[in-house]
Design a protein that fits this description.
Chain A has a single domain (10-138), classed as Roll (Thiol Ester Dehydrase, Chain A), CATH 3.10.129. The first copy, chain A, has three helices and five strands, in the order βααββββα. By secondary structure, the first copy, chain A, is an alpha+beta fold. Chain A has helices spanning 33-46, 52-57, 131-134, and strands at 10-16, 60-71, 80-90, 94-103, 109-121. In chain A, 17% of the residues lie in helices and 38% in strands. In chain A, a hairpin with a 5-residue loop joins strand 4 and strand 5. Chains in contact: A-B, A-C, A-D, B-C, B-D, C-D. Chain A binds chain C through residues 18-20, 35, 38-39, 42, 51-53, 77-78, and chain C through 18-20, 35, 38-39, 42, 51-53, 77-78. Strand 2 of chain C pairs antiparallel with strand 2 of chain D, so a sheet runs across the interface.
């Protein structure tokens, strides 16, 4: 289950589309999905007892190194959406996630996406991921 | 040449990173690149003598159906960037673009990306692209 | 009480600061507060049984005609904030709101603001507000 | 003249409204004007030979302490706008600006605004403004 509090590899959040996130076509602008996916990662990390704020406070940063998305159906202003975020691969210095965004009312799949994050220090040098994040692996 | 006014398949624009586009890492947030790529497409279309505003006024919309991006090096607040946008494939109802974003001062490649747009009407039904856009093809 | 479901003149929402809403100073960018205030109005309206989406579907729009804000203390990434939105004046074709944004953890007042909205039709002509909104008045 | 390179108290910039800056009413969202006004301040500062990036590199920050805006007429997607930014008052640790935003094609006044910035250090303590900025005063 996406909202199982003991499964640290999968998380579910609800998001309501804000007014300025919809463009003049009346649909969620494609650039805004990436903000939602980042929220999905943030809340998934919070399940481990750490926060991304802690990660940065420790001098590490998780930066996007690649991403891809398929836009299947539009999301509209004020709609409630459900985002499922899954850790699909964990390396020494990278994490891959997959995303499924659905309309809450009827479960319609709106978008699927994948991202790869790299763990770097302030100077941008690749660093081994802290254990607090890598424990996703053992979940 | 990217800025050849007669080549309607390739366009070049300059963009300066705005303050709120940089996040607390001090770098251009990954979601903002998609806004820049859209600006690249907009200005490339303008070369044909049409604008995307005209496209929408005619009842058609070019919507993102898929996208992918590689983030190679960060962009910083107030930096001037050069974006090269290229039409890589033109179908009856779709256009593919490729993007190269570089730092203006030293030419460093920051990001490469690809997108596929579908041509739809207000109801979201796929439509044949207007000739005004398809003439990219013959350029 | 701000969260009294029967008081349609005052509403309270919780908001968590998103990563790209903080700028490179590490604080919520001043432009983003207006998005939060709009969310406060949206949720306050929802208490009346109507939504702003319904308002627009009926052909009316509530557009900002003026606004003012005082920034007292910064909000940081990932902080939980409490926004209290109050209807302070209701005219035939305008609504005034006041806002108080506080840090949830310690109640620190971060920002106060005021806005005036005008009710217009698609063409921008001022219109009398629908009763569904004006009933805030009798709450 | 707003674009007199020797008058460091007044600056003029041109801005084209980007697609995701317009909301589903088809007009520039009210929150985006503040991003434009900040661009106006940034370019005005650049006239003095300094940049805001330099200011931050020196450990100082100019933060918004209050603002007000009147929205007179809407701006639309892809329109070219002209923003005139003026320093109206310079104190030891604050700067006030006024803004006029006009449609380029016909000069229509869209918005007027005022802001007060405070000069602070990283910890948020008020600091005397650097001379490089205060020389606006003598312009």
């Amino acid at each position: 289950m996406a909202d199982d509090p003991n499964n640290m590899k999968v998380g579910e959040i609800a998001i309501r589309v804000r007014y300025p996130e919809a463009d003049q076509m009346g649909v969620l602008h494609h650039s805004k999905y990436w903000v939602y996916f980042e929220m999905g990662r943030t809340e998934l990390l919070r399940k481990t007892g750490w926060t991304y704020r802690d990660v940065e406070a420790s001098g590490l940063y998780l930066v996007l190194s690649k991403c891809a998305c398929r836009y299947i159906a539009p999301a509209y202003y004020d709609e409630e959406l459900i985002l499922i975020t899954t850790v699909t691969r964990m390396g020494a210095a990278r994490i891959d996630h997959a995303y499924e965004l659905r309309r809450k009312s009827d479960g319609t799949l709106l978008t699927t996406a994948e991202t790869t994050l790299a763990c770097v220090d302030r100077a941008g040098t690749v660093q081994v991921m802290p254990d607090s994040i890598r424990k996703f692996n053992d979940a």
